[in-house]
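Bug #77: duplicate submission created two jobs. Keeping one. Sequence:
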Amino acid sequence: MVSVLLLVGILVAVFVGYNIGGATTGPAFGPAVGADAISKTTAGVLMTVFFFVGAWTIGRRVVETLGGDLVYDPGVFTLEASVGVLFFIGVALFIGNFFGVPASTSMTAVGSIAGLALAAGELNWVVMGQIAIWWIVSPFIGFWVSLIIGRYFYSSLNRTLAMERSVGPLVRIDRSGRVPIPTPSDTTNRRELGGVAMVIVIGCLMAFSSGTSNIANAIAPLVGSGELEMNPAIVIGCVAVGIGTVTIARRTLETMGNELTELPLTAAIVTATVSASLVIFLSAIGIPASFVIIATMCIIGLGWGRATRPVTVSEAVRGEESPPVSVGALTADREGEELPPIGEEEPERIPSAADLFDPATTARVVLMQNVVPMIATVGAYATFRFVPLFGL
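Kept job's structure:
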């Protein structure tokens, strides 16, 4: 009976890992895909590789934290309870992925474990409070830093970096020798190539950070129950994540890279750098990072900042006047004129808010990213509190 239940637990953990891959690939590589730097398939492969590196190195520490520190008595992680926790994590993440919104795996996992611990009277409120405070503060930090950059510094950054994607492929494959060698295409300049490399490297760094925190969301309950060893659990979880990155993640890549706001290369680098820095900081102090929400709020902040830009810092120092701004000016389009993406507007006009910031998509993303963890928390508490099967 135990072996059958363990098999069920592994299958549920695979389902959770699959949805983690779908939920976290968008924030990591959505900017790169939105800037046409890499394809969705390439993003999935890179996400899988660097997720595994992060999970295998630092991720095992987070597994121990979620499997022990969040509860006073790790004995609550019976095999039956572990399967139940993983089930609620998987279902909640699947709901988010179904709607094309990458939900926070850390919030969902911690919410499910907190529901179990609360039902058993074993929740460590001090640890839970520390995690919750950083989850509230960190997205606002990312939003305001990105908004300030977008509103006051982005034009200067864009002029310095000057990375507009050229028409045609970024590289071509030289097959004249025995080994095919990728080389820059005729339309690719050196600065563009450097910018593309930078945004891809930052995406890989975010994938690594995701692995350090999110592998625990798939396997911590089973490892905490003592029924599955750490190393094989990490391998199983990463394989499942890899499947999710090349399948269901395509929808969240579209949301994060194209629908939320238009992202040229400079904007992709800004949002990825800010969100990756915050995620690394939170991981360094032992907080399971709300990776998805931080990245989302950075993208929103940059788009909002660009849509409401009154004047750059350099213009303010020189005493130059900015053109008058009104609500109508921010929403009106010139007839027959194609408006440029973030940071590439003509200096004599301000882009419309609709071009840089989609309020409808933003509302859907923010709403679902809060609803999904709530579903996991309430569902787990109600089940473990009132269903006698788990015996808490």
